């Protein structure tokens, strides 16, 4: 792992020299990001939230619901939506909402972290209900993968197929030490909003689109999100989507709780980063394995993904083991989270209980296979969709 990539996240926790950076609650309106030809942007109000939703294809097409990752928006899915196969008589219809806390979603609606991915999953189902969709193919990237885990557990009967793209572990992000998801600490110290990079957040607030430091959105995009040296064709639009994240104590970074355990912080109760803590996001493994309805799962990941792997760049277990965080208690207490091993183990359990899954690893690819390797990604993705029509 490149030193620059580690350093980008090395000060993500509230160590003393950065405790003076205070984020005041702020509302950021979604930027007017131009959409590609063939994509339609609409504001849709459901029983739960009003948000921007992108559409592609004909209304009669088989629905494919795309759920974006952290620090992004539906904008990231546009090229994938336009490339949906037309092999079926009715084709496919792409649907991609800005999730709660991001982009064009209602800024007065916050993520209740105590529900894990529950708010996002319920929002997705409410959108399907609004559009009159009984079942859909579901695609989730990174944070969106957490939402998909939750939907597999809570709403399996609403799914036609599942595609997980570099998903977070079904046990949540950070703070677990084995393939069973055993917590490192009972209060889940080392997870939640304390992981939020204060300098990166400040750069977003300041509208910094440069690469003048490692702690700008463009630097994060180029050094951690995609494989280094790859520059997306629509980098400006993707960057604008990153910078349209909602900021504030109930949004990003969210609140934090003090802890007597290593790192000194535990998850709070609001915002996306806290919602991804295993304190709240965990517990999905048993539920989705026990779900009566099961669909086929395609898991696509990049071989060079720095954000989600067994030594993730922003996992404090990784940072502590490499000497970036003082007083590291050792790998016996707080090892790097084995994210890939956890996902694979849970999917094997899912398979043994009647489900099915396929893992596809794309070489020379980082955290966004559908952006970095669109042809290879679509080859696997389209075959999965076409094989799961009912």
Describe the structure.
This protein is α/β, with parallel strands linked by helices and 390 residues long. It has 14 helices and twelve strands. The strands form three sheets. It has an eight-stranded mixed sheet with strand order 1-2-4-3-5-6-11-12, with helices on both faces. Strands 7-8 form a two-stranded parallel ribbon. Strands 9-10 form a two-stranded antiparallel ribbon. Helix 4 (143-154) links the parallel strand 5 and strand 6 (159-165). Helix 4 (143-154) crosses helix 10. The model is unreliable at 3-29 (pLDDT under 50).
List the helices and strands and how they pair.
Elements: H1 3-10, E1 40-45, E2 50-56, E3 62-67, H2 78-82, E4 92-97, H3 118-130, E5 136-141, H4 143-154, E6 159-165, H5 198-205, H6 217-225, H7 235-242, E7 247-248, E8 252-253, E9 256-258, E10 265-267, H8 272-275, H9 278-281, H10 284-290, E11 296-302, H11 316-321, H12 339-352, E12 356-362, H13 369-372, H14 374-386
Parallel strand pairs: 3-4, 3-5, 5-6, 6-11, 7-8, 11-12
Antiparallel strand pairs: 1-2, 2-4, 9-10
CA-based gyration radius: 19 Å
Poorly predicted residue ranges:
3-29
What is the CATH topology classification name?
Answer: Rossmann fold
Q: Tally the helices.
A: 14
What CATH architecture do you see?
3-Layer(aba) Sandwich
Output the structural class: alpha/beta
Largest sheet: 8 strands, mixed
Query: Can you give the mean pLDDT?
Result: 92
The H-and-E topology, N to C, reads as HEEEHEHEHEHHHEEEEHHHEHHEHH
How many structural domains can be distinguished in the coordinates? 1
Distance between the termini: 43 Å
- Measured by DSSP, the beta-strand proportion falls in 15-25%
How many β strands by DSSP? 12
Question: What form results from the Cα inertia axes?
Answer: globular
- Percentage of residues assigned to helices: 25-40%
Major beta sheet, strand line-up: 1-2-4-3-5-6-11-12
CATH superfamily: Alpha/Beta hydrolase fold, catalytic domain
CATH class, anyone?
Answer: Alpha Beta
